[in-house]
Amino acid sequence: MVGFTISRLGAGGIDWRYARRGDGPTVLLLHTLRTQADYFAALVRHLDGYDLIVPDLPGHGESSAPRLEYSASFFRDAVAAFIDKLGLSQVVVVGESIGAVVGLSLAAASNPSVVGVVALNPYDYGVRGGIRRSSVLANIVFTAILVPGIGSVVARAAPPPLLWLIMQGGVEDSANLTNDFVSTLFKSGLRRGHARAFRSLCLEWRSWVDARESYGGIEVPIWLGYSEADWSRPTERQANRDLMPTATYVDLGAAGHFSCLEVPAVVAATVRDAVRAAA
Question: Which of 20, 38, 57, 42 is nearest to 260 (CA)?
């Protein structure tokens, strides 16, 4: 990403790759399932005046993929270790999809460094994972990933055209899903251990749903945003609003699950509001 310094850091048993840029209030960006830090390339063009930190989550991008269970609590604890190792404080966490669940889980655990969370299209719903709702193809592929034996084969990086078709189910306008971005994801998926890690994340689908049980204990300010065409259903969105009645609800507008690819200016405005409130 333009203007960012790329670094590596060991924390929580993970060799992290992360990007950092700027000065000011600290904003930590946590990406979706099966993407990486580059996911936020469009968003960060709208965010100046902040200390922006954008890691590849474990088993994604160029971060390492140790052999363990990739549950929601693992990601929460791993990111907490990352924050602690960098010595961060007064952090506004901005997450989409699983990144949103991680941010909310950190707040629910009363992480002392987290002062606010922007949760975009949190991935905390659906039997065996909500991505199956995105398309017939995704339903077939992600169901197959869970099957013993063939699941490990299916989880290995799909060829770019197939990966593009699966990712297309998360956007309203396919022009927002570039071939270069998908090629980057494909190459990252070939890294050692990444297919195994991604399959484990899929197998741990129930942990992402169960994470919702902790939301009621959140005390820091929350901005809860949903796109019009997110995979979540109205009842699931309302359930989260009921669990977090003091959260500021944000309509992200005409976009799919990957809102940061489609409406980065809308997301950036929400981030700026959250940072101002946290300050």
Answer: 42
> Could you tell me if 98 and 123 are in contact, meaning their C-beta atoms sit under 8 angstroms apart?
yes
d(CA 217, CA 220) in angstroms, rounded, equals 10
pTM of the predicted protein model: 0.98
| Cβ contacts of 265 within 8 Å, gap of 6 or more | 46
Given phi > 0 = left and psi -120 to 50 = alpha, else beta, which region is 3? Answer: left
What CATH architecture is 5-126+208-278? 3-Layer(aba) Sandwich (3.40)
Instruction: Note the residue count of the chain.
Output: 279
Q: Which of 243, 158, 251, 165 is CA-nearest to residue 199? A: 158
Residue 72, SS3?
helix
The DSSP bridge partners found for residue 11 are 14
Distance CA 258, CA 39 (A): 9
Per-residue pLDDT band at 275 (split at 50, 70, 90): very high
pLDDT of residue 100: 98
